[in-house]
Structures are given as structure tokens and as C-alpha cells.
Design a protein that fits this description.
The complex is a heterodimer of chains A (902) and B (98). Chain A has 902 residues and is an alpha+beta fold. Chain A contains 29 helices and 26 strands. In chain A, strands 16, 17, 18, 19, 20, 21, 22, 23 and 24 form a nine-stranded mixed β-sheet that branches. A six-stranded mixed barrel of chain A has the order 4-5-10-7-9-8. In chain A, helix 25 runs parallel beside helix 28. The longest helix of chain A has 38 residues. The two termini of chain A are 53 Å apart. With 98 residues, chain B is of the alpha+beta class. Chain B has a single domain, classed as Winged helix-like DNA-binding domain superfamily/Winged helix DNA-binding domain (Arc Repressor Mutant, subunit A). Chain B is 64% helix and 16% strand. Chain B contains four helices and three strands. Chains A and B meet through helix 2 and helix 4 of A and helix 2, helix 3 and strand 3 of B.
């Protein structure tokens, strides 16, 4: 096979060699014959006859070189290319259709591959598993998902029967300084065996090792990510040994990780790695992280032993795990809990999940939307193929003469059909090439939609081998798909039939094209309905809004603990900054909240309420602490009761809050609308949790985590908590973006080294929190439009073809006294049959597929009548419009002209 | 097999092989010259023969075919299997004679 291909490239040389070889043979034979007395002319003839003809031998040998089918294929391709060059407008239309389809599919696939499919660039990623705790861990949590404590990871690492090793990691933001200024950077805190178990080598120096993670606080070392090393240190080779400041603690750089390795989370790329032994420096305020079994903050990964399966390991670990649970309950540090909760704790189990792609909350978030978009582009590609099919069919009927002649000369139907396949394959491969060229641009646009700040660094728009392979496969598939109908059509013609028909009257070709157009309309309907649903969801979410003011608001985070302050000093610092900002002339009003809004995260816990009787909430309540100015700044109304004020300040030396403000949803869910004022609440739902916080007010509902969610909320006064870090929301006069420098100056006036994070306008945050919805709405909208255009072109094409074919019939009708209107009706009847049938099938598809997208919708049913009616109207009017042009032409047929043409 | 055998004695060009075939097989095996060259190229393609342009006995450049290592192996196996077949046929005939 490979030989065949190489032969193709050196065929010129082979040909000339063969020529010489045969000439030599003939000359020798002739001279031998002449020597034996045969006359020259006869000798030549005899030599040729013995050989059986030079060109016959040559042909046979060419078959040896290239094998028959490959040679035919090259001939087909050459013929196709020549005929395409002769009809540029046809070629351009067909190629463009496929570029759209292949480009869109490839671009979406690029994201699907990177976010959902790509395995980590580590040694044997298929042996990696994520270890998770199913059940109640009776532990406080810090982080995203699948969290467990550090001691459990160390325990699991000892289970060498199952694992080569078990490591854990956690992401955190730190205040990082490499020289004069400091800024927030993402850091991955890892157990000492992280690099070893993953099998990641250093690009420079060395990576973190077991010894770096033995004694807490004793190994101030860091490993840089390759990108960080390149951008911040210019790739300096003497970086090893230099110091960086993490939250003002000096760490020594010991190496740079391999360039391909970007941590175990696709969406969040750390700038550096530090050993877990230094976690209290990286996460100030938490001191027992390495010893506390009841503090879960890390994801735990294991590398299964060779030959060990996930199921075996999971089953094998349970006895040890159950014993550990029992042991835990006897520890002095184990909290006092209700018997039910203890039961829930003891019935926990360990769950192993294959994790060749690491751990990525981004994947969780984009899993459904991406697959959905991938399906949409696949449909779009199908539409493009159908379009090209239709074009080829039309061209096929124009080529009737040629094909009839070839059939008459003895070409097999299979041979003719193959010519058509070669045509479409060539077009598709060319389209694929252009599609690949267009894909990076599309991907870059798409990445902007990904709802995560670090996505642009984590996702790339490059073309790699996998992507090329995918585009090639898709192109070939598209080529085969779009060539199938024309090839079949051409292949089943008989010579007699071809010759009987006059030029350009292939009626069965029209039937096939009508089926294609009907299918196109059906698919278009599903895409357009989908787009309408996503648009309406987005619209509903936008109309609802977050429930607080967004205009003129800007926010930024300050974490004084990351700059070396103690909690008490930090609290005082935050007060000073708060005052400075509120006194500034640029500020209209300003507030601090502990946890920012619309990030998807929150501080949450169940609560205990003391009404006439004691009750606990059945789910987590979203909690926060805010300054009194919060309500005015954000435009959140206090419906009942009062705002926080000096009455809520606790006496010196007393811990905890004295007052709380709850939201309407909280009142509705737990108090059935009774006034909560004066009731006592507290965080936690255990039997020894003592409700001692007075509810002093009720606030209006607004979105905390994201726009879709409606949750119960309870807020406490900011400065009465730790109050050392938080997010400022500042309302300014004018465009909020332009106040970044002055706000920075105010904060630096208080402490010039303080790091500020995430300067963002609130309206931008609202947009960002709707990114997934925007992504779906925009893309499905544009894909729907493309689909509509494609199928209208198809409809128009087939109808004008029908009109051309029936010119004579229409001419006769008109001559016999039919009105022009009846000619129009004739054409429209044909078109509307296709449109309505297509719509019918499409509606069926919508009702089946609708359930799949329900989770992505907001306030809209998947079988939404409005969306469907609008879509059907659009399709009908556009379809009739496309058919009207040929219909109008039909009505303009002059009877005499039409008959003379014949 | 015949071609391999001829070439195994010494490298030869197409015309030479054709003449040898005629000489050896006399009138017993008729080899069509027309199928000789495709066969040669097929054997070359399979890697059993290698070809090289050399000066021939008449002083002109001709394409000489020579046996490769794998061609030699092939020749041995083919000879073996032929010998087995011939032996078997012989056995059947001698059975019949008895």
C-alpha cells in the first residue's frame, strides 16, 4: 500500500524506465531475428506480436505499480479537478457550504477535545482515578468539588495494594511578588508525591518531592509553571535559587515544570506549585489544614497499580474505609452530632472515578452545552452535505449527455458512481482544508464565551494532530455523504433510459432532490426552534436581572491576610479603606461584602431557627456578611425591620454576630410568610448549635451565586465577623471602568503594598455569569440562520430546476388559457408540500429532542408554543419567498417561446 | 519460481530471461513474453527482485534483475513446496503402478 503511494509520486521515473526496458527488449529481439535472416519489417512485427503490444504490457505493469483502484482514483480526481475548474461558481458554492459545516464542527470539536476529552500530559493518564467521599464527611469545606482532608490522602497513599501512589491538590489565590509589585496568582498546593505519581518531569531544576512535604512550615520551596517562568522571568536559566514572595513569605524556586504540564484542572492553570507543608502560608487563617481530619479542602487522586481495576480497588478499599470511619468517631476531636448525622457519616463510602483528564469544574459546567453545540454543528454539517448533494444532483442532470455517452461506451454504473464520489470527496477535502484554516478564528471567538476568567490561558486555538485527524475524517465523511445520492442516482441509470430522455430531464433526480430539501427543512426547524428556546431563556434571565443595581457599580477584592495582616489588624485595615473610599469625591456610596456575588460560589450552611419551636433548614442557606451601606449601594430593599447599625456592634471580647437580616425567600420557605423579626437563628443544624442571633430585618430577593438560582439567604454584619478580607462594591458617578486608577490610589494610600483582585464592573459580571447562555444563544442562533440559508438555497435550487423542466408544460397550459396565477400556484403547491412535510418531521424531532436541552433553559418549556409558532412562521414565509422567485418566472413563461424551445 | 530460479544463477535483463526461459523450457512450457514484464515488476514490487541499470553484453544499458535476500528465501520455500507436491504426485503414480 505504502509502496503504491510512493510509486505514485515517482511515476514519471518509472514510466521512462519501463520505456527504455521495453525498447531494449524489442531492439534486441529485432536484431536477433534479423540475424537469423528474417527481413527487417517482418522482424519488427513478429517481435511486437510476441510481446503482445507495447501499450498493453505498459498498462499491465502500471496496474502492478499502483493497483487498479488507486489508478482509477487518481484519474477520477484529476477529472473532477478539471471539471470543477471549468465551473467555478458551482465549485465555490459547494465548497463554501462545506467550509461552513466542517469549520463549525471542527471548531466546536476543538473545544470538546480540550475541555472534555483530552487526557492530561502525564505518564499513563488512564491509570489515574479521582477518589471521592460519598456521604456526609462531617467536615467543613473550602473549595469546589470532590473535597477530602489532607490526612485521608496520606492514609490512602499507604494502600500500596491498590495504588502506586495517592496525591492531593488544592487551588488557591495568593498574593505573589517576584520583585517590586505584587499581584494575585493561582497556586496549586500539592502533596509531596504529586509530581512523582503523575510522572511529570522538571524542565529545569527539580520538582517538589516527598521530603518537601514532611514537616509543616519547614520547606519554603516552589516550582514554577513553564508559562509563568517564560512570561515573568523571561525564561531565565538562573531562576532556580531565586526567591518569590507568596503572601509575603519567601519561597525558593527549585525548578520549572515540564512545558506541556498545566496542572490537573483544564480550566485553572496555576502559576506555581508549592508543597502542602507550606499551606498555612498560602492560605492564611487556616492552621490545622494538615492535621484536621474534619476539614476537607483538597482533591485526592490515585494512580492504580498496573493490572488493578477501578472496581477492584473501590471494593477492596471499603473494609479499611469503614474501620477508619469507626475510628474517627472515637477521636476526641470528632464533633458532637445527631444520631442521624452519625449514621449518615458511618454509611459513607469511597467512590473511585476514572480521571485521565484530571479534575475540571469547567468540564462539569460545559459538558452539556458543548455536547449540545457539537450536535448542532453535526446537524449543520449534515445540512451542508445535503446541500452539496442537491447541487451535485443538479449538476448530474446537466451532465446527462456526458454520462449517457460514457455508459454507452461501456463504463459500468459503479465506475460512473465512483466518479461522482470522487467529485464530492475532492470538494469536501478542499472544504475541510479551508475549514481547518478558519477553525482557529472561530475557536478564539468561542473561548471568549467560556465563563471562566482563566479560560483564555487554559484553552488554546491551535491546530494539533488530533484536530487535523478529526477534520480529515469529517471531510471524508461529508464527501461520502454528499456524494452518495448523486452517485446512486448516476449509477442506476441504464443506457437505454439515458438515451431515450432528452437533455436535462431526469425526473427521478428531482424526486431525490425534493426528499433532500424536505430533510433540510426538518433539520433547520429543529435548529431554529433550539435557537429560539435559548434566546428566550437568555431573554428571560436578562429581564429578571440579578435583583440589584448593576449600573455605575464596580467591585474589587482585598484580602489583608494575604498581605501578612493578622485578622484583627486586617479588620482595622478594612475599616480604614472603607472610610477612605466613602469619603472620596468619586464615590456615591460603597460597601464591603465577605463573599462576592454571581461567581457561582457562596458560603453556605444549614441553619437552626428558633420560632415558636426549634426547626432546622432542610438545605443549605446562602450566608454572607455585609456592611450597612450594602443595601443602599446595591439597591437591595429592606422590606421589613431595619438595617445593621451601631446596635449590632458587640462588646469587646465577645465573639460572633448579634443580628441578622434574612431574605424574602427564607421567610417564605421556613416561616410561611410570618414575620421573622425578633426570631433567633444560628449557623449550623446540630443539636448543640445554639440560636443566638436576632433577626432584625427582611431584604428583597436577589441572585447570590448566579442568575438562575433563587435561594434563601441570611446576612450578618461585616465588621463583627472576621472582617479582614472582602469584596468592595463601589457606586461611582459615571463610567465605572474609568475609576479603577483612582480607587487603586485610594487603597494604596492606606497600604501601598496591598494587592487588589478582580477589578470588574458589576454589569460585566452579570454578563459573565450568563456566558454559557450567551454562548448557546449566539451560536445556536447563528447556526440556525446558516441552516435556514442553506435549506432556502436548496429549496430555491430545486424549484427553479422544476420550473425549467416544466417550461413546456406550463407554456401549453398558458396557451390553453390557464391564468398566470395558476402557474404560480402550480409551483407553490410543489414547494409547500416540501415545506409542510419538512415542518411536520421537524416538529416530531423537536418533541423528541427537546427534553435533552431542558436543563439549559430558563422559564421556557422545551416544547414552547411561542418559539415553535415563530419558527414555523419564519420557515414558511422564507420558504414560500424562496419558491416565489421561480414561481414568478413560471408565470412569465410566454407560450410561444416555451413551445419554440422544444 | 522459474524467473526467480533463472535470476538466482546470475543477474539478468528481461530479454535475457525471456531467452533463457525459451531455452530451458524448450517447447514444454510456453511463456508468453507479454506477461514476462508485468511478472518481473510484480516480483520487484514484492521485494524479491532488485533491479539495476547496467551495461549489457551488446554495450547498451539494460535493466538487470537480481535476487534479493527475501527473494532467495522465497525461492527456497517455493522449491520445497514444489518438491513436496511433485513427491506426492510421484507417490500416487507409483502406488498406481504397483
Amino acid at each position: 500500500m505504502i509502496r503504491h503511494v510512493t510509486n505514485w509520486f515517482r511515476r514519471r521515473k518509472l514510466e521512462s524506465g519501463l520505456d527504455r526496458e521495453l525498447r531494449y527488449h524489442l531492439d534486441r529481439r529485432i536484431s536477433d531475428l534479423e540475424k537469423s535472416g528474417v527481413p527487417a519489417a517482418v522482424a519488427r512485427r513478429q517481435a511486437l506480436m510476441e510481446l503482445g503490444g507495447v501499450s498493453q504490457v505498459q498498462e499491465k505493469i502500471r496496474d502492478v505499480w499502483l493497483s487498479r483502484w488507486l489508478r482509477d482514483l487518481t484519474y477520477d480526481f484529476r477529472f473532477s479537478a478539471r471539471s470543477f475548474l471549468k465551473t467555478p461558481s458551482f465549485t465555490i458554492t459547494a465548497v463554501l457550504s462545506l467550509v461552513l459545516g466542517i469549520g463549525a464542527t471542527t471548531a466546536i470539536y476543538s473545544l470538546v477535545d480540550q475541555v472534555l476529552l483530552h487526557a492530561l500530559p502525564v505518564r499513563e493518564p488512564e491509570r489515574l482515578v479521582l477518589i471521592d467521599w460519598k456521604g456526609d464527611q462531617v467536615a467543613s469545606a473550602h473549595g469546589s468539588w470532590n473535597l477530602m482532608s489532607y490526612p485521608i490522602c496520606r492514609d490512602l497513599d499507604k494502600k500500596k495494594d491498590f495504588f502506586d501512589g495517592v496525591f492531593c491538590r488544592a487551588l488557591t489565590d495568593v498574593n505573589l511578588s517576584t520583585g517590586s509589585d505584587s499581584r494575585p496568582e493561582m497556586v496549586e498546593i500539592v502533596s509531596g508525591n504529586y509530581f512523582e505519581v503523575l510522572g511529570v518531569a522538571p524542565a529545569l531544576g527539580q520538582v517538589i518531592e516527598q521530603d518537601d512535604d514532611r514537616v509543616p512550615n519547614s520547606n519554603p520551596v516552589a516550582v514554577l509553571s513553564y508559562d509563568f517562568w517564560q512570561t515573568q522571568f523571561g525564561g531565565a536559566l538562573d531562576v532556580v535559587g531565586r526567591k518569590v514572595l507568596v503572601n509575603r513569605h519567601p519561597l525558593t524556586v527549585i525548578g520549572v515544570a515540564a512545558s506541556t504540564f498545566k496542572g490537573v484542572d483544564v480550566g485553572e492553570v496555576p502559576s506555581l506549585w508549592i508543597p502542602a507543608s507550606m499551606s498555612s502560608q498560602a492560605i492564611p487563617g487556616f492552621n490545622d489544614l494538615l492535621l484536621d481530619r474534619r476539614n476537607r479542602w483538597m482533591q485526592v487522586f490515585g494512580r492504580l497499580n498496573r493490572g488493578m481495576t477501578l472496581e477492584k480497588a473501590q471494593a477492596g478499599l471499603q473494609p479499611w474505609f469503614k474501620a477508619m470511619l469507626q475510628e474517627d468517631t472515637h477521636l476526641a476531636s470528632f464533633p458532637v452530632i445527631t444520631p442521624e448525622r452519625r449514621q449518615a457519616f458511618l454509611s459513607s463510602s469511597l467512590v473511585l472515578a476514572a480521571a485521565p483528564q484530571g479534575h475540571a469544574p469547567l468540564r462539569r459546567q460545559l459538558l452539556q452545552p458543548l455536547w449540545m453545540l457539537f450536535a448542532v454543528t453535526a446537524v449543520l454539517l449534515g445540512l451542508a452535505c445535503l446541500n452539496v448533494s442537491g447541487l451535485f444532483l443538479a449538476r448530474g442532470s446537466a451532465r446527462d449527455r456526458e454520462i449517457a455517452t460514457r455508459l454507452a461506451l461501456g463504463a459500468s454504473p459503479w465506475r460512473i458512481g465512483r466518479q461522482f464520489l470522487a467529485d464530492s470527496l475532492l470538494i469536501a477535502l478542499f472544504g475541510g482544508l479551508l475549514g481547518i484554516a478558519a477553525a482557529p478564528i472561530v475557536v478564539r471567538t468561542l473561548v471568549a464565551f467560556v465563563p471562566r476568567a482563566s479560560a483564555p490561558t487554559a484553552l488554546h486555538a491551535g491546530i494539533d494532530l488530533r484536530l487535523l485527524g478529526f477534520a480529515f475524517v469529517v471531510s471524508v465523511a461529508a464527501g461520502l455523504l454528499s456524494g452518495l445520492a448523486p452517485a446512486w442516482q448516476a449509477g442506476r441509470r441504464s443506457v437505454a433510459q439515458s438515451l431515450r430522455e432528452r437533455g436535462g430531464t431526469a425526473f427521478s433526480g428531482v424526486r431525490l432532490r425534493k426528499i433532500i430539501v424536505t430533510a433540510q427543512i426538518a433539520l433547520t426547524l429543529t435548529l431554529v426552534v433550539g435557537a429560539a428556546l435559548f434566546l428566550r431563556s437568555l431573554d428571560a434571565l436578562m429581564a429578571k436581572g440579578p435583583g440589584f443595581t448593576t449600573s455605575g457599580l464596580i467591585s474589587f477584592g482585598v484580602d489583608s491576610l494575604l498581605s501578612g495582616y493578622s485578622p484583627a489588624e486586617g479588620n482595622r485595615l478594612m475599616r480604614r479603606i472603607d472610610e477612605a473610599i466613602r469619603e472620596s469625591s468619586v464615590t456615591q456610596s460603597s460597601a464591603i461584602v465577605r463573599w462576592p456575588f454571581l461567581t457561582g460560589g457562596s458560603w453556605s450552611d444549614p441553619m437552626t431557627i428558633l420560632a415558636d419551636k426549634r426547626l432546622t433548614t432542610d438545605r443549605d442557606v446562602n450566608l454572607n456578611t455585609v456592611t450597612p451601606e450594602f443595601f443602599q449601594t446595591m439597591g437591595v430593599h429592606i422590606i421589613e425591620g431595619r438595617n445593621f447599625d451601631e446596635r449590632d456592634v458587640h462588646e469587646p471580647g465577645v465573639e460572633g454576630w448579634r443580628s441578622a437580616i434574612v431574605n424574602e425567600a427564607f421567610v417564605k420557605r421556613y416561616l410561611r410568610g410570618r414575620s421573622p423579626l425578633g426570631m433567633l437563628v444560628c449557623e449550623g443544624a446540630g443539636p448543640d448549635d445554639n440560636p443566638d442571633v436576632v433577626v432584625v430585618g427582611v431584604m428583597s430577593n436577589f441572585s447570590y451565586r448566579g442568575l438562575r438560582e433563587e435561594s434563601e439567604q441570611v446576612f450578618f454584619p461585616f465588621f463583627e465577623g472576621d472582617g479582614a478580607s472582602g469584596t468592595f462594591y463601589v457606586k461611582v458617578h459615571g463610567k465605572p471602568e474609568s475609576f479603577v486608577p483612582s480607587l487603586r490610589a485610594i487603597v494604596h494610600g492606606v497600604d501601598p503594598t496591598l494587592a487588589m483582585t478582580d477589578f470588574r464592573t458589576v454589569s460585566e459580571q452579570v454578563d459573565r455569569s450568563l456566558n454559557t447562555e450567551h454562548l448557546l444563544a449566539t451560536l445556536s442562533g447563528s447556526f440556525g440562520t446558516l441552516a435556514l440559508v442553506l435549506s432556502l438555497v436548496g429549496l430555491y435550487g430545486v424549484m427553479s430546476f422544476v420550473v425549467t423542466q416544466r417550461t413546456r408544460e406550463i407554456g401549453i397550459r398558458l396557451a390553453l388559457g390557464a391564468t398566470r396565477w395558476s402557474a404560480i400556484r402550480l409551483v407553490l403547491r410543489d414547494a409547500s408540500a416540501m415545506i409542510f412535510l419538512g415542518i411536520g418531521i421537524g416538529l416530531l424531532l423537536v418533541s423528541v429532542l427537546g427534553r435533552l436541552v431542558q436543563a439549559q433553559l430558563y422559564d421556557v418549556k422545551s416544547f414552547d408554543p411561542t418559539a415553535i409558532v415563530i419558527t414555523v412562521l419564519i420557515l414558511c414565509s422564507a420558504g414560500v419567498g424562496a419558491a416565489l422567485i421561480p414561481a414568478h418566472r413560471a408565470s412569465g413563461v410566454s407560450p410561444t417561446e416555451a413551445l419554440r424551445v422544444e | 519460481m522459474l524467473i526467480l530460479q533463472i535470476v538466482s544463477l546470475e543477474p539478468a535483463h528481461g530479454y535475457g530471461i525471456a531467452q533463457r526461459l525459451e531455452q530451458i523450457s524448450k517447447a514444454i512450457v510456453q511463456v508468453n513474453q507479454g506477461s514476462l514484464y508485468p511478472a518481473l515488476h510484480r516480483l520487484e514490487q514484492k521485494g524479491w527482485l532488485k533491479a539495476e541499470w547496467k551495461e549489457s553484453e551488446t554495450g547498451r544499458e539494460a535493466k538487470f534483475y537480481a535476487l534479493t535476500a527475501s527473494g532467495r528465501k522465497q525461492l527456497v520455500t517455493e522449491k520445497d513446496s514444489w518438491a513436496r507436491l511433485a513427491g506426492a504426485v510421484q507417490l500416487i503414480f507409483s502406488e498406481g503402478d504397483q
